Amino acid sequence: MAELKKISDALKLIDAKKESLRKAFEDLDAHSSSLSSFTLTWPAIDARFSSIQSSLTRQFETLQSRTGSVPVNDTPPANNAVSLPPQNDASPSHPQLRLICSAMDAEPLLRYIMDHPNDREALRSELLEAFQVAPDPAKMVLDALTRFFPSNANGDGSNELHTLRRSCVFMLERLMLFSPEIGEDVRQRAKSLADEWKGKMKIGDNTLKPLGFLHLLGAYGLASDYDSTELIELMIDVVRFREVYGLCRGLNLVDKVPDLIEKLITSGKQNLAVKFVLEFKLTHKFPLIPLLKDILESARNAAKKLCKDGKSSLQAKNEAASKEMSALKQVTKYIKEYNLENEYPVGPLEKRLQNIESQMAARAAAKKRLAGAGFAPAPIMSRQQKQQRRNHQVQGRRTTAPAPAPAPAPAGPSSVLSSADGPPPPLPSAGLGGIIPGLPMGFPGNIAPSYLHLMEPQLPVPLPLPFPHAGFGLQPHYPPPYFPH
Q1: Residue 316: how many other CB atoms lie within 10 Å
Q2: Residue 374 has pLDDT above 50, yes or no
């Protein structure tokens, strides 16, 4: 009992000792420029320290459970009051995890995690607790990874497989943090599986495949068996995942992070580079101001390209504005959060942000007014739809021939209109004929006479005449009148 109390008291001093170590490291880091080979970083030390602390705490809890002892409280309960359990011993929301892990059921464990994709926050802590009751958590997780690469390649893009791989990565991430003791036979099995997965991947996959592979190496301590340069290339493919920072520490690649940042900057991913610089405290090697300016410049260029590709349509303008606004908000946040306003004032950035928001609001109001007036915007067609429409129009012009003009009637008295013939069909008119009495019908300059009265004098008109107004230079489809001379 005394030994357990001594261990418990020692464990309580870990946090204070870690804080003292952090202050000592900061003092040393302040003189790092004077050292030729100073590559240590506090995140790497902190990750190692936390891993050891977690391992010691688990072993102490296991020792307590075997001896039937309870932790010694600093203040004993008064008046025979019932002592309350610590706050972190609240009833778990997923008690099935402990049952599954105690039975070493790999497949049910995977299925349970797949069935609860929206409850990952609770599962993060409870899975670590469930690992404590598993006889061999490393073997159990390894047994659950058999379907990560299915034998049927046709289902590689299915939602079911995506969920399965995401769940496998989640288990590996938790196992890497749990840091269990791994037997040599389990490690060899993990090494064979890693070699198999590596042969099924390629650089640039941008999927969960490289993320799962890297977590497999980190969870089973296999990173030293592979080339670090190749691992950094794979890291670039998974930088968009939030687990990437823990991977860098778990794979002992912290000293390679500057190379990773350089590759991100070269490939135009300055926003991700900034996150790595801040996460690993490398502002002394990569100043933030140039990176933030590059983010804005890249966003402006992308916005111009969106407008150009969309032919400055309303949708293209709004998408371009949203992209630039996002970059402005991100950069402004970094400047304020890290007190960089003396080097990079946020006033012009905030003014630009307000201008873009005003332009978007004006476009939205104009669109609403047009919709209220009955003017619906033209539907947005894809390039393929536009090409199909052009092909249809061309085909219609080829297949539709103009109607032949009727043959002119022979000249003579029979062609002169008479009352017995009845009124002729109405002629197209663009003037005021038929509306104001006394005005002739027909287009100005049309050779066809009006038919206001049968006794209206008909004067011979020489043919052909130009059609400057109504005929547009084309011969009419109706027969021209002929008059006796």
Answers
A1: 18
A2: yes
Asked if 273 and 286 count as a contact pair (C-beta separation under 8 A), the reply is yes
* Matching residue, tokens 């599986």: 193
pLDDT at 171 over 50: yes
Residue 221 tokens read as 């301590």
Phi, psi at residue 370, to the nearest 5°?
A: -65, -40
Round to whole Å and give the CA distance between 296 and 330.
9
Helix (H) or strand (E) holding 352: helix 347-372
339 Ramachandran zone, left/alpha/beta (phi>0; psi -120 to 50): left
- Give just the sign of the alpha carbon dihedral 282, 285, 289, 290: negative
The total of other beta-carbon atoms located within 10 Å of residue 340's CB is 18
Q: 419-451 in b/e burial notation, b at 16+ Cβ within 10 A?
A: eeeeeeeebebebebeeeeeebbbbeebebbeb
Encoded tokens for 28: 């040393």
Decide if 72 contacts 4 (C-beta within 8 A). yes
CA distances from 31 to 36, 37, 217, 255, 256 (A): 11, 12, 34, 18, 21
Tell me how crowded residue 50 is: count the other CB atoms within 10 A of its CB.
15
Task: For residue 291, give the amino acid letter.
Answer: L
The tokens describing 178, both together, are 């749990």
Task: Tokens for 386, please give them.
Answer: 């536009």
* DSSP code of residue 392: H
Contact between 161 and 114 (Cβ < 8 Å)? no
Q: Which amino acid is at 417?
A: L
Is the CB of residue 310 less than 8 Å from the CB of residue 316? yes
Indicate the SS3 state at residue 440. coil
CB proximity list for 406: less than 8 A, separation 6 or greater: 477, 478, 479
**Distance (Å, whole) CA 469 – CA 466:** 9
- pLDDT tens digit string along 21-70? 877 777 776 665 555 455 566 666 766 676 677 667 766 766 666 565 43
* Helix, strand, coil distribution of the chain in percent, nearest 5: 60, 0, 40
